Amino acid sequence: xxxDESSLLDLTVRELLDAVxxxxxxxxxxxxAALATAVAAALTGMAGRFSDAGPVAAEAxxxxxxxxxxxxxxxxxxxxxxxATRLPRDDPGRSEAVAAARKDAIAVPAEIGRLAxxxxxxxAGLVRNGNPNLRSDAIAAVHLAAAAADTAAELxxxxxxxxxxxxxARAVAAEARERVREVAPE
Length: 186
Prior knowledge:
By secondary structure, the chain is mainly alpha-helical. The protein is 76% helix and 0% strand. The protein has one domain (8-183): Formiminotetrahydrofolate cyclodeaminase monomer, up-and-down helical bundle (Four Helix Bundle (Hemerythrin (Met), subunit A)). Helix 2 (29-50) packs antiparallel against helix 3, helix 2 packs parallel to helix 5 (94-129) and helix 6 (135-158) packs antiparallel against helix 7 (163-183). It starts with 12 loop residues before the first helix and ends with a helix.
């Protein structure tokens, strides 16, 4: 993992893969989901440009710009949660620190899932109405985004999210999976 001051986005692909594979707690599933969402958005943007779908490409670019930094945000939120749980049990501020850190550890993957769901929907539209020569790229974007949304929902669950937050994350993931069934039913 890069130090706390550097970004996963500044690593080479090889360095990123090594950081994920390293025996560290972050980057992990949340970072991977954020980056998968960003890659799916990039594919969607590319397919949109070849389809003369300027607004779609611009929206995909915005989603990519929003998703990519969440890889770092997820790692930071998890580090903060670990730090809070390591406070002495008799520390008067421990309970509040853990609750605040858990809230952030839930909010980041929930946002990753939301963005992934939006990418899946955008890419599915290109599968149906975009340039047929880029259909497989748009389908790949739908698959990647759906996997990211599923991963994000799992992380929201693992972090003991409130029922309403978990229900929203699971609904987004289910909708993204439905986009996969629509564009690649076999």
